[in-house]
Amino acid sequence: MKNEIEDSSLLEGLQNGDRASFRAIYDRYSENLFRYAMKVIKNRTVCEDIIQDVFIALWSKRGKTEISALKPYLFQAVKYQIFNHFRDSKFSSEDLTRLNIIDVSMNVSQKLEYSELEQRIRNHVDSLPQRCRQIFLLSRYQHKSNKEIAKELDISVQAVKNQISKALAFLRSNLQLEEVVFLVLFILL
Question: What family is reported (predicted)?
């Protein structure tokens, strides 16, 4: 709760052009955002560029963008930049191996726009059983660790892992190949 209160104050300062608020936001989130991007891209330079782009956009749009929750907004911005990176780049064999995708013969960006695809995934997530959906959302959208989720819901860490595995299996089985490629990027497997 303390970070949320502080985040709202920092957001207010940011929207008013306060550089100290911007710096505090950067100091609070840049390292975690960088690690998040590195899980997928595994390229320090590209990840640094992505984080820089996210924060440049945050400052540039400070008075124009409505942000209700800072942390989810920043992580979503990084996800979008990762998607753009893969859309604009050709997958190397190393990328395919790392993402555990063997036969990708189509370009995701030609099939579906990012927002449409994200909405499809959200629709599938909405059709998960309630407890499974709740755990998946806490993990993938609120970026909570399995341990944090287990504590919050008063269940075991193994139960959290089982529900996340169940959700991922359901999503993989209900999405087309190009959507699975995006899902892998989206949830950072």
Answer: Belongs to the sigma-70 factor family. ECF subfamily.
Q: Report if pTM > 0.90.
A: no
> How far, in Å, CA of 181 to CA of 172, rounded?
10
Write down which residue in 89, 122, 144 finishes a domain.
89
Q: Are residues 112 and 182 in the same domain?
A: yes
Domain limits at 168? Answer: 106-189
Q: What is the pLDDT along the chain (189 residues), one digit of tens a residue?
A: 455 558 888 888 888 888 899 999 999 999 999 988 888 888 899 899 999 999 998 998 887 878 888 888 898 888 888 887 876 665 554 544 444 432 333 344 334 445 566 677 788 888 899 999 999 888 877 778 889 999 999 999 999 999 988 888 887 777 654 455 555 555 543
∠ CA 51-55-59, nearest 5°, is 170
- Give me the CATH number covering residue 125: 1.10.10.10
